[in-house]
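STRUCTURE:
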């Protein structure tokens, strides 16, 4: 059993990386700002519920990661624990969970880096402004 499980766990940890990357990039990064702003507007102001929900999917990294995961499962045919449809189901939810863990860690690191950068700028300004 461990002979089969270990490679599956490695695949789980590795496949979650591009899922997290794609979900984060589409829902947060500047390169997709205009389409994201359009989707935000349509998710808030759409006339039909289905329209609002459809466009919301492109604004939420958690929601979007489910669809990226389905795409990755189709491409890779990765499954976890079982060789049938149950393995795909378990793999799908496991990949979403790991990908969102990665995105949470990335978000935490970005906030910490921004905080350190802001502190450094404040200290630098203090040095510039201090009398000599």
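SEQUENCE:
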């Amino acid at each position: 059993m461990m002979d089969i499980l270990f490679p599956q766990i490695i695949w789980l940890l590795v496949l979650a990386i591009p899922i997290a990357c794609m979900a984060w990039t589409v829902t947060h990064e500047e390169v997709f700002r205009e389409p994201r702003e359009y989707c935000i507007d349509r998710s808030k102001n759409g006339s039909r519920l289905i329209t609002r929900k459809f466009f919301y999917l492109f604004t939420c990294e958690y929601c979007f990661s489910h669809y990226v995961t389905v795409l990755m499962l189709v491409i890779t045919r990765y499954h976890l624990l079982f060789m049938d449809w149950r393995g795909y189901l378990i793999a799908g939810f496991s990949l979403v969970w790991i990908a969102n863990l990665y995105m949470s860690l990335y978000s935490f690191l970005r906030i910490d880096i921004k905080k350190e950068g802001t502190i450094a700028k404040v200290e630098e300004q203090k040095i510039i402004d201090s009398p000599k």
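REMARK: The radius of gyration is 20 Å.
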